[in-house]
Write a structure and sequence with these properties.
This protein is an alpha/beta fold. The chain has a single domain, classed as Glycosidases (TIM Barrel), CATH 3.20.20.80. The protein has an 8-stranded mixed beta barrel with strand order 1-2-4-5-6-7-8-9, surrounded by 5 helices. The chain is globular and about 45 Å long. It starts with a helix and ends in a 13-residue tail after the last helix.
Length: 286
């Protein structure tokens, strides 16, 4: 039985995305200024939402909590991402988990059906303060998430950037091995991504960012519900596989006192560091 399941999974991940091309995940951030119609998204086939929770320097997305509540009420799966920078990765991970767990505590128990899918946004940082996260810092971040949650997060990046960074001379085989414990979410707005070493396959493909997409609109729409310039994604699998994938990798926050203590520590550090400049708009996973 186990061999049969593994064989079927292997076949699934070898299939091209066009074999099940359906837009089923949306990602959002505070840069999306409208009030998203999550009920309409669900009617159009969207299963899950991944929202920015935190970004440099130790900021929390102001729209995260309200949209979490609305999406859960609409019966959608929920995820959260942190935009990484070159500062202390362990502090970043602790801040991210503190914000996410604090927001999750507001959700009704009946709505927490699958927990929170966690993601590190690992890309070139040219608009937030703090510089670009290095590969070794990404390793420290994901290991801290695993230590705190028992789950490795997903890794998001553009296909070209990820290949350039991870194939650089300073990235060790051991670091690559750690990162492959994370599932891969990859962006390419012009064609289906190839497998990006050291991963053998991608799980989620962002084919459209801010409405920008070089693929045929009939199969790859650029809007959903009331969002004209959306950030849209295809999961490598059908709806049931996506729900199983989400539930198998999501985190259900526990130990609230520990999370509150981590949040107080981060808040004190940020206050000591002084005010933070307002960031400019990102070009990819905002």
């Amino acid at each position: 039985m186990k061999l049969s399941i593994l064989r079927n999974a292997a076949v699934l991940f070898l299939l091209p995305a066009c074999a099940f091309a359906a837009t089923n995940v949306v990602n959002l951030s505070h840069y999306d200024m409208m009030r998203p119609d999550f009920a309409a998204m669900k009617r159009e086939g969207i299963v899950g939402v991944i929202h920015e929770a935190t970004y440099p320097r130790f900021e929390r997305d102001a729209k995260y909590l309200d949209r979490q509540m609305a999406a859960l009420q609409a019966g959608m799966l929920w995820g959260a991402y942190h935009y990484g920078d070159a500062t202390d990765p362990v502090r970043q991970a602790d801040h991210f988990l503190a914000v996410v767990s604090s927001a999750w505590a507001h959700a009704a128990p009946a709505a927490r059906r699958a927990g929170i899918l966690l993601v590190l946004d690992f890309e070139k940082n040219s608009h937030y303060p703090g510089g670009t996260m290095r590969a070794d810092q990404a390793v420290a971040f994901v290991e801290r998430i695993r230590e705190r949650t028992g789950r490795y997060p997903g890794i998001y990046s553009g296909e070209y950037n990820l290949g350039r960074v991870l194939n650089g001379p300073k990235v060790t085989t051991a670091q690559k091995r750690v990162l492959t414990n994370c599932w891969l979410w990859i962006a390419n707005y012009h064609k289906e991504p190839r497998a990006t070493a050291p991963w053998s396959y991608w799980a989620l493909w962002q084919y459209c960012g801010d409405g920008k997409c070089g693929l045929p609109r009939a199969s790859y729409p650029t809007r959903v519900a009331n969002i004209a310039k959306a950030e849209l994604n295809i999961f490598r699998g059908n709806r049931t596989a996506l729900e199983d994938f989400w539930q198998g990798r999501a985190w259900e926050p526990v130990g609230k006192n520990r999370d509150r203590e981590a949040e107080r520590t981060v808040a004190a550090d940020v206050q000591a560091g002084g005010p933070v400049a307002e960031p400019a708009l990102s070009e990819t996973l905002r």
